[in-house]
Amino acid sequence: MTESIVDGVRYERDGAVATVTFDKPERSNAMDVPMQARYGAALREAEADPEVRAVVVTGAGKAFCPGADLGLLDGIAAAPPAAGGGHENFRDVLAAATVDVPVIAAINGGCAGLGFVIACAADVRFAAAGAKFTTAFARRGLIAEYGIAKLLPELIGPGRARDLLLSGRTFTAEQALEYGLVQEVVPAGELTLRANAYATELATHSAPRSMAVMKQQFTREAALSLTESAREATALMIDSFGRPELAEGLASWNERRAPNFPPHPAG
Predict the structure, then answer these.
(1) Using CA atoms, how far apart are residues 58 and 119, in angstroms rounded to an integer?
(2) Run of H or E including 45
(3) What is the pTM of this model?
(4) Is residue 133 packed enough to be buried (19+ CB in 10 Å), middle (13-18) or exposed (0-12)?
(5) Is the dihedral of CA 69, 72, 78, 84 positive or negative?
(6) If DSSP codes are grouped into helix, strand and coil, which group holds residue 6?
(7) pLDDT digits (tens, 9 = 90+) for 191-246
(8) Coil, strand, or helix at residue 120?
(9) 20-56 as b/e, with b when 16 or more CB fall inside 10 Å?
């Protein structure tokens, strides 16, 4: 196992699964700019590592991530940045949606604002029973930040998304499951085990290239008509017929063994 902690973000790799943990206990994992940048860098580090085939993102202690550090927001309110400044830090916040490796959010506690966006950008979400969620933006005088006005309706439908964004109300993990925001709610003491088991299942049985291409499809094909989506998917499927993943997938099935898929990108 390898481990490092930089700017309040802990990065560990154990076999084919990397874990990125928000670990700033003195601020309950509230995020400042260096922490945000390190989060994006950690996911890109995982993506670049051929040994990593799935990533779990979680929080240390009782919180997942309650959003931006309010001290930082106080400073911004006192001296707002110039409009049109070309801010690109959304790329770090949304890194889970853009890296090729699958990202599983293990939401262990408070998940709000910026932390809420990070969770929504993940591919799959598990939550600890009783964990609290809120978009928070409207109650801080802010807007739907970092693309959440697109992400959230795609996850839970436009009506529910408007409710959660406009009201900024707090809701529980159990309600998040009802809304379709999280895939499972598990006892708090079992969350890490469940998320790691799921990540290990992906790492063991799903081809890295297949998962990477699917993540790209999720983004591109959402904007296409059904016919256009099917046409693009057909071209990708034909290309996959000549790839080594198909031969290994068939061989492992016929031989009743776990597949030995190559890393992606190969080499």
Answers:
(1) 9
(2) helix 33-48
(3) 0.90
(4) buried
(5) negative
(6) strand
(7) 999 999 999 999 999 999 999 999 999 988 888 889 999 999 999 999 999 999 89
(8) helix
(9) bbbbbeebbbbbeeebbbbbbbbbbbbbebeebbbbb
If you search the block for the tokens 């890109």, which residue do you land on?
44
Summary mean pLDDT of the chain: 91
Q: Map residue 204 onto helix, strand or coil.
A: helix
Q: Give the start-end residues of each E strand in the chain.
A: 2-6, 9-14, 17-22, 54-59, 63-65, 103-107, 110-112, 124-128, 132-134, 171-172, 184-186
Query: How many Å apart are CA 94 and CA 101, to the nearest integer?
Result: 13
Cross-strand bridge partners of residue 3: 12
CA distance 178 to 68: 27
Dig out the tokens for 165 from the structure: 């964004």
